[in-house]
Amino acid sequence: MLDLSHDAAPAAQAAPTPALVAGSASVLKPRINYKWIPYGPSRRRQMAAYAKRHYGKNGSDLKPRVIVEHFTQTTDFASAFDTFRSNQPDVEFHELPGVCAHFLIDHDGRIYNLVPVNVMCRHTVGLNDRAIGVENVAMSDSGVMGNHRQLTASVQLARWLRCRFNIELRDVIGHNESLRSRWHHERVPAFKQQTHDDMKPATMRRFRQLVARSACG
């Protein structure tokens, strides 16, 4: 049985007033809603054990070097959120912690922060110790790219995160590009070539072009 006794999370709260990124005269923080998933000591221990097995690292702290864009392959926000909050073994490798993402962007463009960005979240094999995960509620690449509100929000979030953490444009990638990332590394043989189809290179070339229109100051 999953122990959530110490995993209580704050209720969703209103986003703060948008603010300039430190050192930037051009990139504003987008409006972000906070809807934390349970991520207390038990899940932190699971994530630390995962990081030790897969990356040879101690602890679950995250220093972002990559932003990975995903789509949820769900039609609604609630089902994706419930998957992330449930902390169940994943369907591919049956390993804990369960999958999650730092951000989840709904069809209407509302951005939700689910996990603090200084904590690892399991969303991309080979990059979980270095990457912020951004999930878009959609069934396909075209579902994201064809939804103006969602795409605008996703681009704005990527711009802000890139500038906040000094992430290079080439390190804003799609899940399907994970194996090509210069930051990719994986110790477990069964995981070394694992990736997903979401947010392919052609999609991300267009996405990065949009992100690049606002440079960090």
Describe it:
This protein is α/β, with parallel strands linked by helices. It has one domain: 3-Layer(aba) Sandwich (Lysozyme-like). 27% of the residues lie in helices and 11% in strands. The chain has five helices and six strands. A six-stranded mixed beta sheet has the order 1-4-3-5-2-6, sandwiched between helices. Strand 3 and strand 4 form a beta hairpin. Helix 4 packs across helix 5. The radius of gyration is 16 Å and the shape is globular. The protein starts with 31 loop residues before the first strand and ends in a 6-residue tail after the last helix.
Spatially, the strands of the biggest sheet line up as 1-4-3-5-2-6
Q: Stretches where pLDDT falls below 50 for ≥5 residues?
A: 1-25
Order of helices and strands: EHEHEEEHHEH
Number of domains: 1
Q: Tell me the CATH architecture.
A: 3-Layer(aba) Sandwich
Residue fraction in strands: 5-15%
Largest sheet: 6 strands, mixed
Query: How many helical elements?
Result: 5
**Name of the CATH class:** Alpha Beta
Helical residue percent?
25-40%
